[in-house]
Amino acid sequence: MQNSDYCANCGRPIDGPEQNFCPVCGQRTPVHRINWHFLGHELQHGIFHVDGGIIYSLRQLLTRPGHTIREYIRGRRVPHFKPVLMIMILGAVVTVLSKYLLESGGLIPTSLLTINEGARGLEPGSRDAQIVKNFREALSWMNEHLAITLIALIPFYAMSMRMAFRKFRREYNFPEWLVITCFVTAQALAIYGIFLLLRQLLPAFASWDFTAMMAAQIFTFVQLFRPYKGWKTFLRFSLGYVYYGMFVILLILVGVFAILIASLGWDAFVGEIRG
After folding, report:
1. CA–CA separation, 264 and 256 (whole Å)
2. How far apart are CA 153 and CA 148, in angstroms?
3. Residue 113, pLDDT above cutoff 80
4. SS3 string of 204-240?
5. Any transmembrane segments, and where (predicted)?
6. pLDDT band, residue 50 (cuts 50/70/90)
7. CA within 13 Å, CB half, 115
């Protein structure tokens, strides 16, 4: 918990224990540390109430992201849009833009969505052909449900970065890491949406969107963990992304095999494996 004598957002002295909100800025007083109870309340509040400025929050995430996230965790939350709701809105916007501006209709390349098991010499109905078909269907579902997919992956992203930044485990608990990765994901979606529009004017921008998103995330973490050395932050961030990639691949494989088992049945699946 922050200092209960002053408002964590604007610094105005708190009148007494009976004061629940700052009369100047409206911030709840005193502000509590982010924990599971706080996240549950924020999720409920964020879905049914839109009381922050999304444009302001996006501008802050694009210009001073690390400082913005640190301030939010430490208690300065009134000016900011709810991170989960921001991801949902940006995910919907990016999905619509992708559908009309990209051939694939989404973030995933067309080459992966049009994998043909027959063209690869696989016998129709075989286990391998079914795996390829399920893999394609899983990617198509993720492509069509971008916001849901990103929100579902946030715990794994947070877990990966917390593992990589274990030096700061005492400074940020897991719920706070969830908030950090929510903001970083929203930032990435905003940048991707901007590049979707820019590539319509200059096609050369098409090859720079992923680079821009990664550069922004690295900048965010370097700024967030100052005065920790930037090159060490970069190495830990890279390690975290390796962990994250492993989690994503594992989840996709689990999903593919779950679909395969559901379509073939457990006995047939075991028979295929043994055969």
Report:
1. 12
2. 9
3. no
4. HHHHCHHHHHHHHHHHHHHHHCCCCCHHHHHHHHHHH
5. 84-102, 146-165, 177-198, 210-228, 240-266
6. very low
7. 19
Residue 189 · residue 90 · CB < 8 Å: yes
Whole-prediction pTM:
0.72
Tokens linked to 215: 């550069």
The answer to whether 107 and 192 have CB atoms below 8 angstroms apart is: yes
pLDDT above 90 as % of the chain? 28
Region class of 128: left (phi > 0), else alpha (psi between -120 and 50), else beta: alpha
Q: What is the pLDDT of residue 104?
A: 54
CA 123 distance to own-chain centroid: 38
pLDDT at position 242: 95
Query: What token pair was written down for 5?
Result: 């004598």
Residue 184 CB contacts under 8 Å (≥ 6 apart), including other chains: 65, 69, 157, 217, 220
Beta-bridged to residue 21, according to DSSP, are 28
Cα separation, 11 vs 25, in Å, equals 10
- Please tell me the distance from the alpha carbon of residue 134 to that of residue 151, in angstroms, as a whole number: 22
Q: How far is 81 from 115, CA to CA, in rounded Å?
A: 39
**Mean pLDDT, rounded, for 184-198:** 90
Is residue 244 classed exposed, middle or buried when 0-12, 13-18 and 19+ CB atoms within 10 A define those classes? buried
pLDDT at 110: 54
Where is mean pLDDT largest: 21-25, 119-123, 145-149, 265-269? 21-25
Sketch the domain layout of the chain as residue ranges: 1-32, 36-274
